[in-house]
Amino acid sequence: MEHQPKKEKPHHVTHINRLLIIVIILAIIIIILVNPALTGYKIKSEFEKIELSTSGILEEQELTKSKLMIAEANLTVCSNVKESLMSELTNVKSSTSSCLQDKDVIESTYTQLSNEYKANLTRIRNSYEQDNTEFVQQYNLNISLINSELEQAKTNYNTANTNYNALVTFSGRNICCKAKIDDGTIDSYEVANNKVICTAGGENTITC
């Protein structure tokens, strides 16, 4: 089998291919270069539609930056205020918990003292009632004894007074009857300073 030599492509076909490649590359480069300009033009057209110029855009941008800075500052302030409020809330919660604990302790102490007071009051009342009953009983007994002794003293006094009067009468009659022998005017006697005085016309008459 005989070897046949390769047929070479025509020279003008090679030039066409190269030219086509160059055209494609140039088209790509143009698209790359023109695309930002088209984008910018489109943006510009949009801004023109809403009646914004380049200076207006810059002013709007600066205003937006200012607003953003103010918003960030306000956010910082709000954050600080929030942290402060959270800290105060924590302190309030802690104080509230402490107050509740103190309240529980006070209520427990009050209940204990109240119970002790009631128990002491009951004990004192019972003791008072018992002592009062004993006192009344003793008082009544003493009054009874005193009344009994007083009655006895009255009886003794009456007896002594009767005896004394009888003695005075007997003594006065005997003494004055003897004295009458010497003085016939004597017909009575009187008692003065526990002494019998014979007289005439006195309170106590004598019969001899």
- The count of helical stretches stands at 2
Could you give a short account of the major beta sheet? 3 strands, antiparallel
Any idea what the radius of gyration is?
Answer: 73 Å
Estimated helix fraction: over 70%
- Can you count the beta strands? 3
Low-confidence stretches: 1-9
Entry keywords:
208 residues; mainly alpha; 2 domains; three-stranded antiparallel sheet; 2 helices; 3 strands; 6% strand; disordered N terminus
What is the topological layout?
Blueprint: H1 11-49, H2 54-182, E1 188-192, E2 195-199, E3 204-205
Antiparallel strand pairs: 1-2, 1-3
Question: Can you describe this structure?
Answer:
The chain is mainly alpha-helical and 208 residues long. The chain has two domains: 12-46; 52-205. It is built from two helices and three strands, in the order ααβββ. Strands 2-1-3 form a three-stranded antiparallel β-sheet, with helices on one face. The radius of gyration is 73 Å and the shape is rod-shaped.
